[in-house]
Amino acid sequence: MHTKQKIWSVIISLVLILGISQYSYAKIAATESTDKFPRIEQPLPLKLLVTLGGLALIGTEIWWFLFSKTKAQKAKSHQGIQEVEITVDGGYTPDRIVVQVGQPVRLNFLRKDPSSCLEKVLLPDFHKAVDLQLNQITSIEFIPKKTGEYAFHCGMNMFRGVLAVNHQENSSVH
Ligand SMILES: [Cu+2]
Fold first, then answer.
1. Pair (23, 95) in one structural domain
2. Separation of CA 43 and ligand 1 centre (Å)
3. What pTM, to 2 d.p., does this model score?
4. What is the pLDDT of residues 62-114, one digit of tens each?
5. pLDDT tens across 21-68, in order?
6. Percent of the chain scoring above 70 in pLDDT
7. Could you tell me the distance, in angstroms and rounded to a whole number, from the CA of residue 2 to the centre of ligand 1?
């Protein structure tokens, strides 16, 4: 399931719960005025607990959404190839890969997430669309020819990562 969808379903269910409790409270208040039925008292601690629990949940979601940091990783060079392993599990870790321009890059995707959402990874700027096998490493190789930031993402563009292509360090080119 997509993370964004999860967040929305949590928010929607909280709104529904609050709405239902408001409605039943209004109903109880209405019946009280007719005096036909005895008033049903909801225990106050329970009401407080539900409200506080809801607020805490909303706070956590917002915090996670705004402040969860991206994990950047610089690719390591092995025999002229810049390599990095990316774990695919509820997203991409690291989700920011730093490489140097003009050198071959090999991204090793290790897919641990069985959800069909993450079975494909796309790098549109490098014309790559690759199927990832579960619990296996799938490598994608290419040479970034221009500096810049390039996105990679799942088939439906819900989970994303960035490939940052920088200028060469200690350049020996004159
Ligand atoms: Cu997806």
1. no
2. 43
3. 0.61
4. 766 666 666 789 999 999 999 999 999 999 999 999 999 999 999 999 999 99
5. 666 666 655 555 556 666 677 788 888 898 898 888 888 777 666 666
6. 70
7. 7
Cα 161 to ligand 1 centroid, rounded to whole Å: 12
Does residue 59 share a domain with residue 36? yes
* Ligand 1 centroid to residue 157 C-alpha, Å: 6
How many separate domains does the chain show? 2
What's the N-to-C CA distance of the chain in angstroms? 51
Which range of residues forms the domain containing residue 33?
Answer: 2-67
Q: Nearest 5 degrees, angle CA 97-CA 99-CA 105?
A: 95
In this structure, what token pair is assigned to residue 152? 């990679």
Question: CA 168 to CA 128: how far, in whole Å?
Answer: 24
- 102 and 61 part of one domain: no
User: What is the 8-class DSSP label of residue 157?
Assistant: S
- State the distance from the centre of ligand 1 to the C-alpha of 173, rounded, in angstroms: 41
